[in-house]
Amino acid sequence: MVYLFYGTEEFLLQKEIDTLIQKQQIGEYGVTKYNLETTKLEDILEDISMPSLFENHKAVICENAYIFTGQNKRGAIEQNITLLEEYLKHQDKDNFLVFKVLTEKLDERKKIVKQIKKVATVKECKREGNLIPFVQNLFKDYQIEYSLIPYFIKRIGEDLYLLEQEATKVKLYKYDEKVIKKEDIDALTSKTIDLNIFNFIDHIITKQKKEAMETYDELIKRNEEPLAIIVMLANQFRIMYQSKELLKKGYTEKSIAETLNIHPYRVKKALEKTGTYTSETLLNYLQKLGDLDKQIKTGQTDKYLALELFILGM
């Protein structure tokens, strides 16, 4: 059987694959992973045609399945798509060939996309705009007040991996009681600021010094290096600036992502935030962060105090 999972959330794609493997009761020795950018289809199809030595069923996972998209992957090997077209006509019903690709949409013009949609399971793994149902499901076997769900999301951030990880941590601690309170969330989870870096940037640019300092304190508590924070901030400002300039020149979100060689989701978020910021403002912040990085590395200023003074001085 053949499956194709696509979408822009790595977490959701992997969740679908994990669910499939668990449902079919395939053990770890029955799962093989390949990268379609570096492995030939003929080798993958040969593998799926061979019976597993340890399991009743086997799953062959093909990551970076760019052949179903309009992406032109630099350095990716050329694939013989005809081999896959033939396999789809006579696919193995006992084993599972799973394609996974991070993309917003498939290239509907391609013959292979039209064919796989007819004979295989194709699913878009798309996150809902409202994360409350997702988090409620994470705590489905526990008692937790509804008001604590948005509080949990605000504290942890919107990264699905991290939400699941922090929820698991709380559930393990409260396994016997199965009642979760606000003090449990506060005591057992970490405020995840670096994954909400755009909020951090907003606090800095809009001179919300209190919120920015809270962010900074949380990062330091988690042993984040000030230099790493500076680099993180500078990278986001750079993406915002570049995306803004390319958009002015008529580039689409997709073409901007391809030009900058970053995920389309990062471009989307950057463009959402650049509307109220001029290019000059973004360049100014990049310059200040560059100077700060140099001062720390040359010993002219203390690395912990430097970023704090930068935030307070905005």
Which properties best describe this structure?
five-stranded parallel beta sheet, alpha/beta, 314 residues, Zinc Finger, Delta Prime, domain 3, 7 strands, Rossmann fold
Task: Write structural notes for this entry.
The protein has 314 residues and is of the alpha/beta class. It folds into three domains: 123 residues, 3-Layer(aba) Sandwich (Rossmann fold); 57 residues, no CATH class; 119 residues, Up-down Bundle (Zinc Finger, Delta Prime, domain 3). Helix content is 54%, strand content 10%. It is built from 15 helices and seven strands. The strands form two sheets. A five-stranded parallel β-sheet has the order 2-3-4-1-5, with helices on both faces. A two-stranded parallel ribbon has the order 6-7. Helix 3 links the parallel strand 3 and strand 4. Helix 9 runs antiparallel to helix 10, helix 11 crosses helix 13 and helix 12 crosses helix 13. The protein is globular. The mean pLDDT is 85.
